[in-house]
Amino acid sequence: MLEIKDLYVHFGVINAIKGISLKVNDGNIVTLIGANGAGKTTTLRTASGLKKPASGQILLDDEDITHTSAQYRVQRGISHAPEGRRVFPTMTVLENLELGAFLRKDKQGIKADLKRVYELFPRLHERRRQSAGTLSGGEQQMLAIGRALMSRPRILFLDEPSMGLAPLLVQEIFRIIRDINSTGTTILLIEQNASMALQIADYAYVMETGSIVISGSGAELMQSEDIKKAYLGG
Amino acid sequence: MIKIEQFLQQVFNGITLGSIYALVALGYTMVYGIIKLINFAHGGIYMIGAYVGYFCMTFLKIGFFPSLLSAMTICTLLGVTIEKIAYKPLRNATRIAALITAIGVSLFIEYGTMFFVKADVRSYPALTGLLAQKFAVGGFNVSMLQVLILVITVALMFLLQITVKKTRIGKAMRAVSLDKDAAELMGINVNSTITFTFAIGSALAGAAGVLVGIYYTSINPLMGTMPGLKAFIAAVFGGIGLIPGAMIGGYFIGMVEVMVSGYGNSMYRDAVVFGILILVLIVKPAGLLGKNTREKV
C-alpha cells in the first residue's frame, strides 16, 4: 500500500502541493484527475523520488520512504512511466526495455518479462531494433509503459498515458492498463481524460491547485454533478 | 611541386597529433554529453598527466608503460575530485555558473602547478630501445614513437567504445546523457554515473598528456591551454556530446594543423583551427554528426 500523508511541495516560493493525503490500496487502480497545473504530475514525481517534498510523509507498506532515493524506490517496487513518455530516443526499443530492468540481476526473470511486454505490445517486438525516437507517439507511450513494467513493479505510476493519442489508441491503452492491473500490479494513474479514468478506477481523487477537493470510488464520482460539470463535459 | 612521400609523411604526422587531440576531445565531449558543461579544466588535467608521466619516468624511473598508467590513475582521481568539489554543488545552478567555475578550476590547476614545479620548461626523458627506433617505409620516415601513440590511442578508444556500448555502467552513462530524470526512474544512480564519466574522461586526458610529452619532449604548466581549446574545437566540429564525433574531430583538427604548417605557413596554424570553429558554429552548430531532433506528439 502506498500512502501519502499531508504532503507539501514547493517550487521556490510557489506552493505546488498544499498538504495532500491519499492512499493507494494493493491491487487497485487509483486515479488522480484534475486540470492542468493542479499538481498531479508533481505529486507523482515526489512519490517516485524525483522531487523532494518540503514536508509530509510517503509510506510504502508502512515504510517511510520520504527521504530515500529514486533508485531505492525502484528497488522497493515503485515504477514510473513519466509524463511525455521520456523514452531514450537514440537507443533501440530493446535497449530502452533493458534499461527498465537496470537494477535486476535475475536474467531468466528479465527474459520472461521482456516476453510479457512483447505480448502486451506486439508493436514493440516488431520494432525492437529500431531507435525509440523514430516511433510514433502511441508506440513511444507503449514503450514507456513497457519499460516501466520491466522492473517488475508492485505499483506502477502512469502519468497521462493517453495524452496526444488517437481515440482508438486511447481505448487500447486503457484496455492494457486494466490487463496489467489484473495480473496484480497496483496502478496510480494520472489522467486528463477523466471519464476514461473514472471508468476503470477503483478509487479516484480530484485535485485543484495543489489540494485534493473530492475523492470517492470511480463510480461515485462519475455520478457527482460537480464532477460532471467540471471534468466530464456534461 | 608536392611530392607524394612528403605528403604521406605529413599525413602520418597529422594522425599522430590528431590522436592526441582526439583523446582530449573525448573527455570534453563525454562530460558535455552528460552534464552539459564545457569542462575548461580538462586541459589542466592533460597537463597534470604530462607532469605525472615526467616525474615517474625521470625520478622514479619506472619505464614508459607504468608511467602512463600512473598518469591515468592520478588524473582519474584529480578529475573525480574536481567534479566533487567544484561541479557537484552547482548541479542545479545555471550553466553559466558552472562554466565560470570550470575556467576558475582551470586557472587554479595551471597556476597551482606552476607554484610547485616552477614555470620552467622541462624536457621529457628520451625513450630508449625499441621505442626509440625509426624506420623508413617507402620514401618516408616513421618513428616507433608515432606508431606507439597511434596504437595506444586506438586501444583506448576501443576500450571506451566497449565500455559505453556493452557494459552496465556504459548503458547508464548513455541513459543519463539522454535524460537524467528518466534514467533516475530506471534506478540508475545519476551522481555516480556522472563521477564515472569524469573519471574516464580524465584518464584519457592523462594518457594524452604523457603521449604529447614523449612526442614533443617538452612540457610546461601552461601547455594544456592551447591543446585544450583545440580539442574543444575538435569536439564541437564532430558534434559535441557524441563520442565518434570527438574521434573524427580530433583527427580532422590534427590533420588540418599539420597540413597548414607543412604546406602553408605555420603562423596561420592556430588561426585556421579557430576559423574552423567559427565556420562550424555558423554553418552547422550541431557539428558533423549532430542532428537536431524534434519532439514527437
Describe the structure.
With 234 residues, chain A is of the alpha/beta class. Chain A has a single domain, classed as Rossmann fold, CATH 3.40.50. Chain A has 10 helices and 10 strands. The longest helix of chain A has 16 residues. Chain A starts with a strand and ends with a helix. Chain B has 297 residues and is mostly helical. Chain B has a domain of 204 residues. In chain B, a hairpin with a 2-residue loop joins strand 2 and strand 3.
Topology, pairings included?
The complex is a heterodimer of chains A (234) and B (297).
Chain A: E1 2-11, E2 14-24, E3 29-34, H1 40-47, E4 55-60, E5 63-64, H2 70-75, E6 78-81, H3 93-100, H4 107-120, H5 122-126, H6 137-149, E7 155-159, H7 167-182, E8 186-191, H8 194-200, E9 203-208, E10 211-216, H9 218-223, H10 225-231
Parallel strand pairs in A: 3-8, 3-9, 6-7, 7-8
Antiparallel strand pairs in A: 1-2, 1-4, 4-5, 9-10
Chain B: H1 4-35, H2 42-60, H3 64-87, H4 95-117, E1 122-123, E2 134-137, E3 140-143, H5 144-166, H6 168-178, H7 180-185, H8 190-216, E4 218-219, H9 225-238, H10 243-263, H11 269-283
Antiparallel strand pairs in B: 1-4, 2-3
Helix pairs in contact in B: 1-5, 1-8, 1-9, 1-10, 2-3, 2-4, 2-8, 2-9, 3-8, 5-6, 5-8, 6-8, 9-10, 9-11, 10-11
Which fold name fills CATH's third level, the topology of chain A? Answer: Rossmann fold
Choose one word for the global shape of chain A. globular
Number of continuous helical runs of chain B: 11
Strand line-up of the largest beta sheet of chain B: 1-4
Name of the CATH class of chain A: Alpha Beta
CATH superfamily of chain A, by name, is: P-loop containing nucleotide triphosphate hydrolases
